[in-house]
Amino acid sequence: MTTKTTIYGKWLLAGVLTALPFTIAANVYAAPPQAVSKEAPTKEYELFLKEKLGITLPPAPKKGDFLSALADALKLEPTADSVIFKDLALSSPYYADAKALYQQGFITADSVHAADRLSALNAVQIAVKAAGLQELADTYPKAKVEKAFAKLKLNTADFAARSAQVVAAAVDTGLLPEAFYPELKPKAAASEPLSATLIGKVLTVRGQYKHYIGYVGDPDIFGKLSDAYRSSDIIQSDELQKIVDTALEQNIVTGYNLKDARYDANFVNSLSLTYGHSDLKHALQLIGLLRSEGIDAKVQFEPKTSAFVYLKEWGDPGESDLYEVKQIANGNYIEYAKEYDIAFEFDTAADKERFDQIVLAYAKKNADEQAGLIAGSWWQPLYYSLTELKGYKKITNNKITAGHYYAQSFSLKEQSASVTAGFKKADPSVKVENYDFWTDVPFFNYLNGESK
Fold first, then answer.
1. Which interval of the chain is the signal sequence (predicted)?
2. What does the pLDDT look like over 313-337, one tens digit per residue?
3. What's the pTM?
4. Does residue 193 sit in the same domain as residue 322?
């Protein structure tokens, strides 16, 4: 019987396989990154709001600017129930956002003062409520408030009792980073950096910011990555698999991935890449490789199941906790293999650009028994960016969604229409999302049918 190890080099959209006959010189050694602070800098929140959500605050935010930015960031929509503000007409550009925040209990007064300069204290008060921390703040006794205010170097007597509780809770929970302590003086205006940071912190507490298990430079990143891999399972979605399995059987696609959106990194596109593989050892060595090249990045483990046709002439597929099989009408099988994507968000765009050179030098197979590669290197490594990168090739993702699960199949741009038609033939009601992105050259060559 042909072994699984031998078979693994023959197929797979999701697992990748052909050769690309070129080599690249190794990079000059750079010092490995050190473990970094987990406190996101203000610029990171500002970039996230701008790039991911289309939100930019003015240099001197008015209260209405902050309320609108917060409501937009949280994707809040008001209900049809009537809310009347004493100082805000229904025609105001701030009205809908203020109404949505009022209905959520994040603002409670019937006067908004949208045109007033935003105060630092009011921004913190609103952020604490929006983050779901108000009840915690209400538990604060005087002694605990005094302890937090000692860090601020402020006098509690200058604040109303409940306002002081809110500020103390913001300090203790990290909602208010130390860099902004000086802004909390009574009646002081909130800066744009403080406003953006508070919104970013609210998103973080609510689980709507970035998701990652750590940084490349973290001392415990290897353990976290191993735990994430070992606790992941083969993903199943009957609703989606009825459609994409039909497309597989009819040779409309050569493979597809199943993923769970709850694990999506939500990184800033301009600084991030996604790298796909199946072998834990490879992932661990890839992290070590990046460290050795002086590159740091946020790391998110995204479980993935890859499906493809396993030909009957390859022999009995057997059983494993790493894959499942289902026999289809022509005697072949559909195999569902446990894989993963690792999403990286790099510190700089230059580090993102260097990733391609590093992989091609140390993680791309060009010959049998090739030395000098990390374990489990593929003939066709798969990694891609949602923003254009020099030397990468544009392809298309064809994606369908059911709840928090989604199935996607990558194709050449000119083949996307036929993939979409195939999905719709299997289920005329399905909505197919198509978008272009940029992939590494070896995987692009694989889509063009090149083989070893």
1. 1-30
2. 999 888 888 999 999 988 999 999 9
3. 0.89
4. no
